[in-house]
Amino acid sequence: MNLIHLAASTGYTTPSLWRVLTKSGYFVGLCGTIGATVTYAASVRPALKRADVPPEDAGATRRRTAGYLAWAGVVLLVAGYFQLAARVARAGKGMPFGDALAPGAIADFLTAPAGKGRGSPRARSTSSRTSRCSSPRPS
Questions:
Q1: In this structure, what are the phi and psi dihedrals at residue 52, rounded to the nearest 5 degrees?
Q2: pLDDT number for residue 103
Q3: Weakest-pLDDT range from 11-20, 31-40, 62-71, 95-104
Q4: For the segment 54-87, what is each residue's pLDDT rounded down to a tens digit?
Q5: What DSSP line would sit under the chain, residue for residue?
């Protein structure tokens, strides 16, 4: 009960609409693309290979599925771009989402050097490994 009062006293701030839409749009696109691909590969494609399916029906189903998967991929790419722009807007201090949509802002974000202590985990593990190896061996 104490946590409920604490949460009520601090107040909940609703996230911006663009944050909600970019996150949910990306994951809806991702689920649709993966779900359609798995459904086609696991059930539709094997059913179309049966001998009792007329070739014209199988061809029509393949064309419709290919069109759907192509559009799902495009939706996923667009939603991914919006999600990346949202990440750029959150990283920039006070940058509006509309400005973060510019390809130049995204390119600047992707090519900016990492801040202190923000190197990749692989780079950190490599540097710690080399520092251990560079010490002289005890005799």
A1: -85, 0
A2: 93
A3: 11-20
A4: 999 999 999 999 999 999 889 889 999 999 999 9
A5: -HHHHHHHHH-PPPPPHHHHHHHHHHHHHHHHHHHHHHHIIIIIHHHHTSTTS-HHHHHHHHHHHHHHHHHHHHHHHHHHHHHHHHHHHHHSTT--HHHHTSHHHHHHHHHSPPPTT---HHHHHHHHHHHHHHSPPP-
Instruction: Specify whether the CB–CB gap between 72 and 33 falls below 8 A.
Output: yes
| Cα-based distances in Å from 12 to 7, 8, 15, 21, 138 | 8, 8, 9, 19, 58
Q: pTM of the entire structure? A: 0.66
Question: What integer is the mean pLDDT of 5-29?
Answer: 81
Cβ pair 106, 88 in contact under 8 A: yes
**Dihedral angle computed from the Cα positions of residues 116, 118, 119 and 120, in that order, rounded to the nearest 10 degrees:** 180
Give the integer Cα–Cα distance in Å for 23 and 28: 9
pLDDT score recorded for residue 102: 93
pLDDT at residue 14, rounded to an integer? 77
